[in-house]
Write a sequence for this structure.
């Protein structure tokens, strides 16, 4: 048991998980925004916009997240010279990488949010949209007032799965030096190899604690919000 | 043909068509602006990523024989090993979750839920260090061991869940008929339920291959020389990181896109009967989903 105490006193486990939580929450908001936009594009009446949506989903979904993270950090930041933090700030590199990590996570998961929404739209019976059209609504009002409210309720379960996946995928931004849970795990293992199992237990346990309630809440929500048909 | 009737919007008249044309032009212009900004940034004079000397190295045979093809080979090798082991592990865990012995069911359930909650990267880090220090595997093998073990632990649990949901989705009569014939519970599972469940979940299984292939990229972190790592080695020799990442991305996208097409065509073939039975999917009826129906919940789950 002494191993656990040493690990907790030598390393700031909670701070690392706090970074994980921050990454998750911020990028979930971003992914929801981009994903809704892409989802709407994918069902829009304008063919060109529809193909934009489809292209986005196909490109992003088939690229490893690590590559997207690299593109953001090395490509957009280092090469295109876009920075998201004041250059003269002492924490410039840390802040900049954290923010580009956020963007990469949001961009990547937006594709899955769009797919979840589309599967939600698929659960809405055609009669709903037909009724909306017959009272003279056009595309956006139909989505806004009739289809999307029902579709999001139908999409709760896949959206919850996306959120859980997002939580776990925040570990990938450790590749650009963001000190979150998996980065800390790597550091801990480098100098405490005798405590290998304890380290894994702590870190894996942390993720179980993070994702289990999310899963339970979303399962409960998806039952509670399900549209009775 | 009723399948081409749009449901989310009326068939456009002359005014709507004109409006759509305007929106399309604006959309294309915006996309063009974005692309132009990217290209201008990439071609900035201080650090031109589009110059010939950044791209010429790709035309040399060594680029492919020494870097990209070996990298691709190792990516595929890890993915293939992980697929085979995950299918085996998933089948065992899935059968365990459906077993009649309660303790076995609980144990397998615990394993599945645990490894589904742990990020693949952490599984890999653990397996890598376990292989290195506990099993004393040396050299390049330990990185491969780490990647394959990490991927297998996670994907076995996902496949076990797929199998379980596939079996529970079967009509109850199937199991009852098996039992009525005098088969034992295990025999019914193996020879009646599993064959049907596996057929039904084949598309999700193929999509899971895309996930496994993408996740091999995480092997980068535990120094497994897969495609991205090979690309970075190549880029550090030639000083062309951005072009290399682009080439690697294209390779991944082509490979995964081909796999997801296979998954979709399988799904379409298998669900051809189900579509007629359940015609209430909006996008399906209106023909708005050119690439087939949206995967069911089980398929969307975990595919990240």
């Amino acid at each position: 048991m002494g191993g656990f105490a040493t690990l907790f006193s030598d390393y700031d486990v909670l701070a690392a998980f706090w970074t994980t939580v921050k990454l998750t929450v911020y990028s979930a908001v971003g992914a929801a925004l981009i994903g809704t936009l892409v989802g709407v594009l994918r069902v829009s009446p304008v063919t060109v916009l529809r193909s934009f949506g489809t292209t986005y989903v196909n490109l992003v979904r088939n690229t490893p997240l690590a590559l997207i993270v690299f593109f953001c950090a090395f490509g957009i930041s280092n090469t295109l010279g876009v920075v998201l933090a004041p250059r003269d700030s002492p924490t410039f590199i840390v802040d900049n990488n954290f923010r580009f990590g956020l963007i990469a996570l949001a961009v990547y998961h937006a594709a899955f949010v769009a797919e979840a929404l589309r599967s939600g739209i698929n659960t809405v019976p055609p009669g709903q949209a037909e009724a909306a059209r017959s009272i003279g609504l056009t595309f956006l009002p139909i989505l806004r007032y009739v289809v999307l409210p029902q579709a999001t309720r139908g999409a709760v379960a896949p959206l919850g799965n996306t959120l859980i996946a997002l939580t776990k995928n925040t570990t990938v931004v450790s590749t650009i030096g963001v000190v979150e849970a998996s980065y800390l795990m790597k550091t801990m293992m480098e100098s405490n190899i005798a405590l290998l199992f304890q380290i894994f237990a702590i870190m894996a346990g942390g993720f179980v604690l993070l994702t289990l309630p999310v899963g339970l809440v979303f399962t409960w929500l998806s039952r509670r919000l399900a549209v009775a048909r | 043909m009723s399948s081409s009737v749009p449901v989310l919007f009326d068939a456009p008249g002359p005014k709507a068509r004109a409006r759509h044309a305007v929106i399309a032009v604006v959309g294309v212009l915006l996309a063009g602006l974005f692309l132009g900004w990217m290209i201008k940034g990439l071609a900035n004079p201080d650090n031109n990523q589009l110059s010939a000397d950044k791209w010429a190295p790709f035309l040399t045979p060594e680029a492919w024989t020494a870097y990209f093809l070996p990298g691709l080979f190792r990516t595929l090798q890890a993915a293939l090993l992980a697929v085979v082991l995950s299918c085996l592990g998933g089948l065992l865990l899935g059968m365990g979750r459906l077993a009649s012995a309660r303790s076995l069911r609980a144990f397998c359930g615990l394993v599945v839920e645990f490894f589904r909650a742990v990020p693949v990267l952490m599984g890999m880090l653990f397996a890598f260090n376990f292989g290195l220090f506990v099993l004393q595997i040396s050299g390049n093998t330990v990185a491969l061991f780490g990647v394959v073990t990490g991927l297998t632990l996670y994907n076995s649990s996902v496949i076990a869940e797929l199998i379980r949901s596939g079996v529970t989705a079967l009509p109850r009569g199937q199991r009852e008929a098996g039992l009525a014939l005098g088969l034992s519970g295990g025999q019914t599972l193996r020879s009646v339920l599993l064959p049907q469940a596996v057929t039904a979940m084949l598309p999700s299984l193929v999509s899971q291959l895309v996930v496994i292939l993408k996740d091999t990229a995480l092997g980068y972190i535990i120094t497994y020389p897969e495609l991205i790592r090979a690309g970075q080695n190549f880029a550090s020799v030639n000083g062309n990181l951005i072009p290399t990442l682009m080439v690697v991305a294209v390779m991944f996208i082509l490979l995964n896109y081909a796999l997801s097409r296979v998954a979709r065509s399988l799904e379409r073939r298998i669900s051809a009967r189900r579509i007629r039975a359940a015609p209430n999917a909006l996008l399906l009826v209106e023909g708005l989903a050119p690439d087939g129906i949206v995967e069911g919940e089980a398929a969307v789950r975990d595919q990240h």
Remarks:
- Chain A touches chain B through 73 residues (CB under 8 Å).
